[in-house]
Amino acid sequence: MRRAISITVLSALAGLAQAQNANHFDCSNFLQFGADINKTRTAFAQSPETMAWNWFACLNQPSTAQSSNLVWETMKPSDQVYLPNGAPPGTYDSSAPLPAAVVTQAKAQGMNLSRAFHNLNATQQVDGLILQMGGAVPDAQQGNPVRFQLLMGKDTFDYIVKNQVYNMNGQAALANDLHFPPTAWELKAAWLWIGTDTTYQQTLVNDGYYIAQAYYQQDGKYQVGYAALSGLHVVNKLDSSWVWTTFENINNSKYTVTNAAPATPMTNTTGPTPAAKPVNASFQASNPTLSKYELIGVEFQPITQVLANSQLESAFQNTSSCLACHSTAAYSNDDGYFNFALNKGGGIVYPTAPLPASDFDGYKKLDFVWSLKRAQWQR
Amino acid sequence: MSVLNFPRIYLNGHMFWNPPTANNNDVFPLYDAVNADINWPFMSHFDINATNAPTQLMPWAIKPLAMSDLPTYVLQVPTNANPKTYPYMPAEWDLFGDNACGTVSYKGTRSTIIGGELQANTYITEDALVGRDYQLLGNPFGSNAPTAARFVDVSPWQNTFTALYFDKLMLGDATCGLTLNRQYRMMDRFLNFNWGALGGLVYVTTTWQSCFPQENLEWVIGDSALLSNLQQQMKLQGAKGLMFRFSTYLTCYDRNGVFNDFPYVNTRSNAPTDTARLQAMYQKGLDNVSGIFFNPAYSRTAATLGLWFADEYPTAPAGLRLVPVAAVPIIQTSPPRDVAPTKLGVVSAQVTGNTLSLDLTNTFPFYPVDATAPILTAEKFQAGDYQLGVREGDQFTSVVDFGYEQYRQCAFDKRSGLLDFALNDDNVKALQSGTLELQRKSPAPAKPVTAAAQQTWTAEVIESGSFIDVGDHKTLNIMVQKNGVPAANTTLWVAEYGNPYMVTSSDYYLAFSNAANFTLFYDDPTDRNFNQANLPQFNDAPPVSNYLATGSGRRLTALQNVHRPTSTPVGYLDFLNGPGKPIAVNLQPCLAFDAGVYVTGTLNDNQATQVDYSYVTTTTDANGIAQVSFRAVTPGFPTLRFFVKDGDSDPAIPFSFPLPQAYIDFLTPLRVLPLDMQLQQDFINYWNTVYKNKDAATELWEGFLYPRILQTFYYLYPIMNKYMPLNSQARVEGAIDQLIVLISKPYQEESTLSMPITRDMSQSRRAVLELWAKKLVKRNYPPQQLKMSDYDNL
Q1: Where does the UniProt annotation place the signal sequence (chain A) (predicted)?
Q2: pTM of structure
Q3: Does any domain span residue B386?
């Protein structure tokens, strides 16, 4: 106990010290960890939370001086990687054209077609449940799900293409485990759907939410409108077990609710961690556009730990570990993808520490990249 | 022994019950539970079929139906034609129920540990454990936080039908408490519908019990002398573990806003404004999960935690048991009301050293003091003064006396219905000299009334409430006691009974295999509210009075014996194969006994109807445990009844017996789930015709999985919309990891998470879902054929 407390305190102090230098971080080439990855590793080791915030700040800068898109919004969405019928994806920089119906609606609503439109094509978290919007959301959105999207960096994409694991045929043919490069990045974003309600949109702006243009398909029809970023996982492979960071808006409990009956406000029960708190205060003060976002914590060591984003691991926060859960990413030709819903005591729990290697006999490990589950077979 | 032993810990509070009521309708046969399917023949009366169900079924389910809307056969079922019932909503009172149950701790209403006794009459209220909450909890679902315990009607049409599934019982908290991990789930016991005649289901009481081996206990004694003493005594006295026994009573409905934060609804009212409001609220919940609300029932509860010894039934009170004999006059004083004499309930008794302990948990009837109060409180009827003693032949010897002050509600609440008497040595000797009898004192010259007398034999099945698949072989263990002690080398006869209607709670008829067309009920077309069940018997068997019931289930208000009616007799086969087919249940055997004896009996009706039936005999071992084995042959809800062979003469197996008698019989309900190998083959065939198609996954979902397997459950368990909408391919596939775990066979047996759909799911449906989930969804639908042998490798 004494040792754990010391580490926590030291970590918090280190984070505070690093946070004072927050604004001096060089965002150029940060997705490649600058010119010397080892320097990044050293800085990360001094304060993982500070480095997480630096990445978050860099990701949220405009992608170019003239662009209205943020850096992370230019990353490759998974729906443009894992294509129907297992088709090979285009190049990393080529964006799939928006569906015509989306363009039509967007024009009608006066939206900016030169700006990114996020395809928010997922609603389920890894426990199979949705996160309901509720509380202060308008009646039209009560009970509707928070929506999600997956994005990946260029080196992640290139590795998937190079190894032809963008479809199931490629994954089934794997002879060995996958090993992504250290500069592999993935993001998972959670969004409150706004639609076209300008009053609600302004409320969310006032609460510090980043607003983006978005669409999704439901019952064969496209919904087009605005969405507010409520949570963001940012992960990369700086460490062999990857580095797992997660951010969310501090006002999420106003707009999302639990599955309790009656529903109660959704809160984060895992953080911000003590080490993240001073770093949050520092970066929030120096980044006005991100001042309502907070880092919940960072995982990078293969130990028993719990970390969750209230928007992305809502109902299973106390058995949620990004690293442990993603360490089960594996495929078997006989049994398919590894089932991380663990049978325990007549219930279901999720791994909070990496499982023993013997659990993966007969599987090919996918190097923590669960987005590969979205691959399709060629037919 | 048992909780009648010392030490004891007493608990008191409220329980909630949150069943999904559309699939458990007392009046309408919406759900064909035998085949686990929507009752489409019934639905056809309303022009609803599988094709138009997506738009028609749920709107129909939440709309009140007038009596005139119903097919005749629905009203013909005895108890189903009470005009006061209608208009009646198929969804009933808790459409979105999730099968949860547990104790209530809400605002000022708490369910807590209230005291204890280390030995007789040493009541302790000053203890670190006292005042802390207790709760029944379910298995964890993706979180360290436990979920709710669950209950399910294993056999919905009979008496002992409700099973309570739980993972643990938790007393206190992490600083002072006790966690008892489940070994045995519970079944309701002594559910006495006779007391419904006092004014409805609110008067009906039931008893529950579960036992926990020592190794299943997690102690955090803290500063609690009660816990410390209980732990010490468990070891010192050589107990097997702990026993938790509780009663539930004073069940009330529509208490939203009192025990919870849900909006109030009045589901008992037939007023158009109330039904319209309920309908609108149900529709809102169906339209959007944020509109889902519960409307649980609530009961009072009183419980005792004590010692569990070897040879004691784990899920029912063992030891000496007294059952009612004659009705006794009872008086309601506050407010005054004339009440007809009634029979008491069951009494358990035990002599430990020089202490006589009685379990009066379910013995004396009670009434709500103010039936309009938000939270009902009970008072016992003044049922007179009593003497308990022994009978030897014609001689009754009184040993102890007690009066109203000792069984009235405040005394009941204090000790959870237990009552102790100090005995001298002569008393002890006297009590061992004959059989126990409870007499109500009467002022001279009237003679005392024998209110209850010792039941010589008791028998309980450890695996009561089991689920079995057609084709499966099963062995049940039956613990038999004679005068409260294990009965070695005792022969039992075992016969199977069924209930004839898929609505209401109905009488029991022997399962038979021939085309016996006895009179099932008497139909009065001029007023079917007077329709009555017929209970024929075999020749030479004592006659059984027919009775007229008013209402059933939640609507139960009265039971009274009536004379044989003059209305039209309706034959069982005529009803089963004729117009009554959508509501009748085949009384064919669901089970084939190992070494069964096949016989033919003749009914004492005008046609001398021949009945082919079977029974099996079994004998207890040195520990008083017998076994009965059988193979499940037909889906349904068989109830096994046990008859002890006492002496040289064979026991009589009655052809029928009435529902109100069942609470003191030795019954075990079972559920036999259908097996449909053709379904499994059809699934393989379907996939093998579409597997190469670009949209193979969607074709399989729309063409097979949803319509053939999940559609029924989608309609009947709308609470699933909140967690896994069963009509959504994306949502079900997106939760495939969880589905694989939750539909597994072991989870069906015990997990509270198996609720609500999979406990109703046949083995074939489960096999198809497992094959689909593991070999197709988890592999992203490989364009490869499946074969029947793939079912063997799941």
Answers
A1: 1-19
A2: 0.92
A3: yes
